[in-house]
Design a protein that fits this description.
The complex is a heterotrimer.
Chain A: H1 2-32, H2 39-55, H3 61-84, H4 92-110, E1 121-122, E2 131-134, E3 137-140, H5 141-163, H6 165-175, H7 177-182, H8 187-212, E4 215-216, H9 222-235, H10 240-260, H11 266-280
Antiparallel strand pairs in A: 1-4, 2-3
Helix pairs in contact in A: 1-5, 1-6, 1-8, 1-9, 1-10, 2-3, 2-4, 2-8, 2-9, 3-8, 5-6, 5-8, 6-8, 9-10, 9-11, 10-11
Chain B: H1 3-32, H2 38-63, H3 71-89, H4 97-119, H5 124-143, H6 167-185, H7 188-198, H8 200-205, H9 210-236, H10 246-259, H11 264-284, H12 287-290, H13 293-307
Helix pairs in contact in B: 2-6, 2-9, 2-10, 2-11, 3-4, 3-5, 3-9, 4-9, 6-9, 7-9, 10-11
Chain C: E1 7-16, E2 19-29, E3 34-38, H1 45-52, E4 60-65, E5 68-69, H2 75-81, E6 83-85, H3 98-105, H4 114-119, H5 122-141, H6 157-172, E7 181-186, H7 194-210, E8 213-218, H8 222-228, E9 231-236, E10 239-244, H9 246-250, H10 253-260
Parallel strand pairs in C: 3-8, 3-9, 6-7, 7-8
Antiparallel strand pairs in C: 1-2, 1-4, 4-5, 9-10
Helix pairs in contact in C: 3-6
The chains are: A mainly alpha, B mainly alpha, C alpha/beta.
Chain lengths: 294, 328, 267
């Protein structure tokens, strides 16, 4: 029982990181119906930005976190401007292929020696790891930090989306782009903001991932990115609470698979979940299915 | 159709056949004289293997319009199937490779049928991620395959596969693949496939069973990948699950997209050029520049999507790949 | 048998959530009739088409074609039975040639398999040749023969409409000659200029007779409806509000109200 509880805590930790990535997927998909495959790589860049901020510039952790978030926001916005905007009216698969291209580009470009380099790097811990024992459970200060920051960011996002004018405009665009435009909402601006916010969250996810699982490399974004995407689909893509719910489940499924079945099978199980969801309820747990117009 | 144009067609057909035979003899001579060394021989064969696989994906995506990111999985299924049979039976005669090729092709087809029937109901990007998920699951299964079949080697890789793939085998299968694809596309079932890509609702409305034809395209395309994988297994004598991961599916996609959607000619050119450049440059270029290859090709992909989304030869074909009725 | 209606719809309903797109719809069409289905925007006309052709499943009710219940059939099965349609917003195979658009409509009657196709067997060549010839004949009737090798999306609007009708006609006809076939045309005259409309009306009349068709058409152009339909059915809010001969319909107060609103119903 204690073992199970411990695994659940570990699962939640992983789930929090997935949630931060999944939110970016879901925001972008909600607005321009694009699976932004490069999002996982923005997450990777976030981890590296945090790495350099802590190790090279000796910045304190909160500053490093914000630095990574801002850096990723800029990168996300630039990607959208250069690669996706010219394809705004192209078929969805064309955008998807472009996103794959951007993803591969970021991975291989950052692997070059004058940038991040192709090797694994050990992530610096901003402070010593302390383990707290509650009964037979162990929680580290790192885990607490990951939870607190993830939850804090999600609350901030929720406030941003529901209470601010820009956030409400974002939801309006997601709901109906052309009507939103008629209401005087600047679509391009909203898309830019969406990419910025989503990428900043992924950046934060990258830093948290780095300190929690202290090893990074340029291809580290692929799997967490894909799984976060699965999480977004599982919860119902385009739906913010759905992304959080899905991410929690995915983190849990993965950790429990490793604990009780086999760690080599965890990717297979994660994607099996995806296939099952797509076949049974493609709109996701919290999504409503829609009827195709003929 | 006048008899003059018929004769013209016949002579151009003979010309093509002669050209192919000439090409084969010249290359075969260069290879046996070691003017083309074994390293390049392998690259040439690999180009053929990629051509076959990419033709399969072009059938699925370019012609039938079903976007798949799991093509490498079927390639892998073909590779492991053939390697398993040929290695277990300890065949060493290149002619017996046919058994592995057929087995790999058929098993890939069967699995494509089983997975295709449920997931081909999904559209566009949902289908893309479903096939991607399928590809990852298959890769994990390859990683763990040694638990059931130790000979497959699992994540350590499979070694000691008889090296039976010859240039002759590759060329024969490439030619067969091109002919099958050309004949299929220029037929009633082929037109039904293309109509699904053009407009699924309209094609249902004229009596096309879209589920059937989507599955047909997916299965035949995956069989191409399966047979290509089987050739691959016996070309390098070593298999590793990493050879069949998500990134490998993207490689094939890249060939199809660069060469051109629904263009057999485009795929032929793009596959050969892509392999020769990517693999060939390895020996020519200094190491520092080498890494840039992998930076440039995704950039190419993005640029193609922005400026010419149908690819370089999108929808166009060499004359000999046309069939019959064009009035040009 | 001869008096059996080609199409018999009874108590057909289709709801989308709370919206009753079609409710308790009854209609019978006899062999060879040319019926118009009219009504204001949003009355549910296209939904009726989508239900007949299997694109939507009914919430309740029955659709019988030659006495056979078809409401559970898939769209392609219904098309193969001989009910075909055109679409309000033209759905051609846009990047294919005009000829291929028509040839695809022959596909389920081309009686050879994938193996024949791949091997280019003698059977394949024979059937392909006849499909080609028949397609060209149809294109001639629709005055599109000189466009056969052009890409469908490059045709002018009126010709695209004609091509779509040709395609629907081919997939409906060509079954057993004695069997009735039902053609559903969804606003065939939309977007056409007066002279194109005139040609279209002649064309519809011509194919109606020549191919022994039963036709149901949705149309907003009253000139077309009044000019070619033998009977008109008027829908509003998912229900039939009136039906009869064209000139009788024109003077039915219920119809006038549906289109123009009652004096008291200010909207």
């Amino acid at each position: 029982m204690a073992y199970l509880l411990q695994q659940i805590i570990n699962g939640l930790q992983l789930g929090s990181v997935y949630a931060l990535i999944a939110l970016g997927y879901t925001l972008v998909y909600g607005i321009i119906r694009l699976i932004n495959f490069a999002h996982g790589d923005v997450f990777m860049i976030g981890a590296y930005l945090g790495f350099y901020a802590i190790l090279r510039f000796n910045l304190p952790f909160p500053v490093a976190l914000i630095f990574a978030m801002l850096g990723c926001a800029v990168i996300g916005i630039v990607i959208e401007k250069l690669a996706y905007r010219p394809l705004r009216n192209a078929p969805r698969i064309a955008c998807l292929i472009t996103a794959l291209g951007v993803s591969l580009f970021l991975e291989n470009f950052t692997s070059l020696k004058f940038l991040f380099g192709p090797n694994y790097l050990a992530y610096p811990r901003p402070f010593a790891v302390v383990n707290y024992n509650i009964g037979s459970l162990t929680i580290s200060n790192i885990q607490i930090l990951v939870f607190v920051i993830a939850i804090l960011l999600m609350i901030l996002l929720q406030i941003f989306v529901t209470k601010t004018k820009t956030g409400m405009a974002m939801r309006a665009v997601a709901y109906d782009k052309s009507t939103a435009q008629l209401m005087g909402i600047n679509i391009d601006y909203i898309i830019t903001i969406t990419f910025g916010v989503g990428s900043a969250l992924a950046g934060a996810g990258g830093v948290l991932f780095g300190i929690a699982y202290p090893q990074i490399h340029p291809f580290m974004g692929i799997m967490p990115g894909l799984k976060a995407f699965v999480a977004a689909v599982l919860g119902g893509i385009g739906i913010i609470p759905g992304a959080m719910l899905g991410a929690g489940i995915m983190g849990m499924v993965e950790v429990l698979t490793s604990a009780y079945i086999s760690s080599t099978m965890r990717d297979a199980i994660a994607f099996l979940v995806l296939l099952i969801v797509l076949l049974i309820k493609p709109a996701g747990l919290l999504g409503k299915s829609s009827i195709e117009k003929v | 159709m006048t008899s003059i144009s018929n004769i013209k067609k016949q002579t151009s057909k003979i010309k093509i056949i002669l050209l192919v035979i000439l090409f084969y003899i010249v290359l075969q001579l260069l290879m046996s004289a070691q003017i083309i060394n074994p390293y390049w021989q392998q690259i040439i064969c690999y180009a053929g293997v990629m051509t076959i696989s990419a033709l399969g994906l072009n059938l699925i995506y370019g012609f039938t319009g079903q976007f798949s990111l799991g093509h490498a999985a079927f390639f892998g299924i073909g590779a492991y199937t053939s390697a398993f049979i040929i290695k277990s039976a300890n065949f060493s005669n290149p002619l017996l490779l046919i058994i592995g090729l057929i087995a790999g092709c058929i098993l890939a087809g069967i699995i494509a049928l089983l997975i295709g029937l449920p997931i081909l109901r999904l559209r566009s990007d949902y289908l893309a991620i479903a096939t991607l998920g399928f590809g990852i699951i298959v890769k994990v299964l390859f990683d763990n395959a040694d638990a059931v079949f130790p000979v497959l080697g699992g994540s350590r890789g499979m070694v000691g596969i008889p090296q039976l793939t010859t240039f002759t085998w590759v060329l024969v299968i490439v030619i067969l693949a091109v002919l099958i694809l050309r004949n299929l596309i220029n037929s009633a079932p082929g037109r039904a496939l293309v109509s699904v890509r053009e407009d699924e609702i309209a094609s249902e409305a004229v009596g096309v069973n879209t589920t059937k034809y989507k599955t047909l395209g997916f299965v035949i395309g995956s069989m191409f990948a399966g047979i290509a994988g089987a050739l691959y297994a016996h070309l390098y004598a070593f298999l590793h699950p990493q050879n069949f991961d998500f990134l490998k599916s993207i490689d094939v996609l890249l060939i199809v997209v660069l060469g051109g959607m629904a263009s057999i000619s485009g795929t032929l050119i793009a596959a050969v050029v892509w392999v020769l450049i990517l693999e060939g440059l390895r020996v020519v270029l200094p190491e520092a520049v080498l890494d840039w290859r992998l930076v440039i090709y995704p950039l190419l992909l993005i640029l193609i999507m922005i400026f010419k989304p149908t690819g370089i030869f999108g929808g166009k074909e060499f004359k000999f790949l046309h069939y019959g009725d064009k009035n040009e | 048998m001869n008096n059996q209606p080609v199409l018999q719809i009874t108590q057909l309903s289709r709801y989308f959530g709370g919206l009753k797109a079609v409710s308790d719809f009854d209609m019978a069409i006899a062999k060879g009739e040319l019926v118009g289905l009219i009504g204001p925007n949003g009355a549910g006309k296209t939904t009726v088409f989508n239900l007949i052709t299997g694109m939507y499943k009914p919430t309740s009710g029955s659709i019988k074609y030659l006495g056979e219940e078809i409401s559970n059939f898939k769209p392609h099965q219904i098309a193969q039975k001989g009910i075909t349609r055109t679409f309000q917003n033209i759905r051609l195979f846009a990047s294919l040639s005009v000829l291929d658009n028509v040839r695809i409509a022959y596909h389920y009657k081309t009686d050879y398999g994938v193996t024949d196709a791949i091997l280019h067997s003698r059977k394949f060549s024979r059937i392909e040749k006849s499909v080609q010839e028949k397609s060209m004949q149809v294109l001639k009737i629709f005055n599109l023969a000189n466009r056969a090798y052009e890409t469908a999306k490059n045709l002018p609007y009126g010709e695209q409409r004609r091509l779509e009708i040709a395609r629907a006609l081919v997939s409906a006809v060509e079954t057993n000659e004695d069997k009735p076939r039902l053609l559903l045309l969804d606003e065939p005259a939309a977007g056409m200029n007066p002279s194109e409309i005139k040609n279209l009306m002649e064309l519809i009349r011509f194919v109606h007779e020549k191919f022994n068709l039963t036709i149901l058409l949705i149309e907003h152009q009253m000139k077309v409806v009044m000019g070619i339909c033998e009977r008109v059915v008027v829908m509003d809010f998912g229900e039939i509000i009136s039906q009869g001969k064209p000139d009788a319909i024109q003077n039915d107060p219920k119809v006038i109200e549906a289109y123009l609103g009652k004096a008291t119903r200010a909207c």
